[in-house]
């Protein structure tokens, strides 16, 4: 079975996990095993799902991706694709400003990114077909063309696919996981039939706070390590009794998880990658002394340290009252919300892109900044449901923009991509793509290509053993090739 190729023909859902004779699924067995291991070690290790990073396939440069996710969707009209000549029904209050690329303008919310626009490519013709947050996120992150919102994904997201495929290349000495999420987007994506062992090692909390730390990484003593070795050996002896009736791959994944957890505990070098105090104070200031700035700084540190995939989500208090970019009028006064978060967003993204180039990472590391869709070009007005940052008191009519998957923008930097490009275009109101339409499948194929994954020709077996393409309805965007 291959993935459905049309949103109008979604096809069957992935089959449910096979059941253990005692009534529990393989996933439940894994969960019990992981929980047992966690109870014997230290809290927080259950986040260590990915193996230690491996070198790339022979002869391939060890590439990496940082994805900065904007949950809810940034208004393209008020940022990267302004339409200053449209009527007030559509046009926001922000003036346009020139950029480093002749003829290209942004809104005044992004002065720093405007100054470095020659360092990144702007894709103005992104499009997908799902209007809800779950389905839109699943289209962008896993390639699922279904337009229906589902409680959990049926296909693995590109991050876990990359983690899984690179794990197949074999281990390397680097003790850090291949895939790390720094306050990552986890609500509408996941490993699906790949299993929990390929989820990210999650770093949560506000890294700008003096009290921030990543618990237990690189802190175990020699005695702790020896005790862990004994307990893991005992657990493996016990679990070997069930291997005849459970899939061998599941237990291999669990063994990989345990090996990584041990390494994260006992290798002192793992702690350094997460330690922002090792950065120059001016560098920390450059990103912004707030959660978003320090998240992106940590992302840069992690890819430098050899992590293959790093994801981070810009959400929480810096977004305003409801903690995301979902700027309906009932949630936010959209223009106040954009002003509220613009400086932190502009500063952090600019610093990350600049440092990728300044530190010689610009061919190896790809940075992509996107959300699941844009916002409606036409402004709507509704009563606020509650007062808070960037929202008037309840009952106050205020402006907002709704979901808009038909046309939106994202930016791409590094990865050997030629900067200063503007790819695609939208119509005079920003409602529809008029030039170089790019789909979620194209987005995924482009990311996979940078990671050395030949997406159209790679399949992974689902829970029924059927080979399923990692993405079968997209082509890598030629303008975004090295």
The CATH architecture name of the domain at 52-122 and 153-218 and 267-414 and 433-480 reads 3-Layer(aba) Sandwich
Shape descriptor: globular
Trace the largest sheet across and list its strands. Answer: 6-5-7-1-8-13-4-14
Structural class: alpha/beta
Number of DSSP strand runs: 18
Order of helices and strands: HEEEHEHHEEHHHHHEHEEEEEEEEEHEE
Distance between the termini: 33 Å
Q: Any idea what the radius of gyration is?
A: 23 Å
Tell me, rounded to a whole number, the average pLDDT. Answer: 83
Overall helicity: 25-40%
Beta fraction: 5-15%
Main sheet summary: 8 strands, mixed
Give the uncertain stretches in residue-range form.
4-58, 234-246
How many helix segments? 11
What is the CATH topology of the domain at 52-122 and 153-218 and 267-414 and 433-480? Alkaline Phosphatase, subunit A
Name of the CATH first level of the domain at 52-122 and 153-218 and 267-414 and 433-480: Alpha Beta
Summarize this entry quickly.
With 482 residues, this protein is an alpha/beta fold. It has helices at 26-40, 111-115, 133-142, 158-167, 222-239, 248-266, 269-274, 281-287, 291-304, 334-358, 440-450; strands spanning 64-69, 96-98, 105-107, 120-126, 179-182, 201-203, 309-313, 365-370, 374-375, 380-383, 397-400, 403-404, 408-414, 422-423, 425-426, 433-435, 459-461, 467-469. The strands form 6 sheets. The chain has an 8-stranded mixed beta sheet, sandwiched between helices. Strands 2-3 form a two-stranded antiparallel sheet. It has a two-stranded antiparallel sheet with strand order 9-12.
